[in-house]
Design goal:
The chain is α+β, with helices and mostly antiparallel strands. It has 4 helices and 8 strands; from the N terminus they run ααβββββααβββ. Strands 1, 2, 3, 4, 5, 6, 7 and 8 form an 8-stranded antiparallel sheet that branches. Strand 1 and strand 2 form a beta hairpin. It is globular and about 40 Å long.
């Protein structure tokens, strides 16, 4: 992804405050684009820039895991904003979401794609067959590159080892469209957001009808 910080920009390693996430997931999703994310683990630090996300609106969204209410699996979504909701899908992949809004509303933003800017050797060791473009291109690849699994569910991203930095985002043209792989009534909803012209943005595929809804 191209782009540089404007002259005079003060870079910061401070995380975004919790109030940033205590808003509609639609607003948070747009404002996350172009921001840097840092993930610390025993292996080291991976830093990446978010270029694609999807918003989910809880009980008002047929595409959300929370549409039919709280379960042990989605309980983190119903908690306070600024935490990671991590879930297992297709029997093989982890996906990471940021919880938004007020307690009980279960809104979230799925992290779909990012450009790894630091710690590429660490991310690459986790995905040894990947090209540089594909290191974090798609939600399952993103969590793999960061080293995120189910143990990260509930992580406080304001105070924890995973955080979105308060440094201003790199600008760009924001595009919107249907969410990837979401079928049924929530399928056409244009709540997928990405930065135009970035090769690390994942490919769109329509949803197929399944017995359970999406996120």
């Amino acid at each position: 992804m191209g782009g540089h910080w404007p002259a005079g920009t003060r870079l910061s390693n401070r995380p975004l405050p919790r109030r940033f996430y205590q808003r509609s997931s639609l607003d948070v999703a747009r404002d996350l684009l172009g921001r840097d994310v840092v993930c610390e683990s025993a292996e080291g630090v991976v830093r990446a820039r978010l270029v694609e996300v999807e918003a989910y609106q809880g009980a008002d969204d047929p595409g959300s895991h929370a549409f039919r209410g709280q379960t042990p699996r989605n309980a983190t979504m119903f908690g306070p904003a600024g935490h990671l909701y991590v879930y297992f899908t297709y029997g093989m992949h982890w996906c990471a979401n940021i919880v938004c809004g007020a307690v009980g509303v279960a809104e979230a933003v799925l992290l779909r794609a990012a450009v790894v800017t630091d710690g590429r050797d660490i991310a690459g060791s986790r995905r040894p067959a990947s090209t540089a473009r594909d290191l974090a291109r798609g939600p399952a690849r993103l969590t793999k590159a960061f080293g995120i699994d189910g143990s990260w569910d509930g992580t406080d991203i304001v105070r924890g080892s995973f955080r979105v930095l308060a440094t201003p985002s790199i600008g760009g043209t924001v595009r919107t469209g249907p969410r990837v792989g979401v079928s049924g009534p929530g399928g056409p909803t244009p709540w997928r957001y990405w930065l135009d012209g970035v090769p690390e943005v994942s490919s769109y595929r329509p949803g197929v009808v399944r017995t359970r809804s999406g996120r």
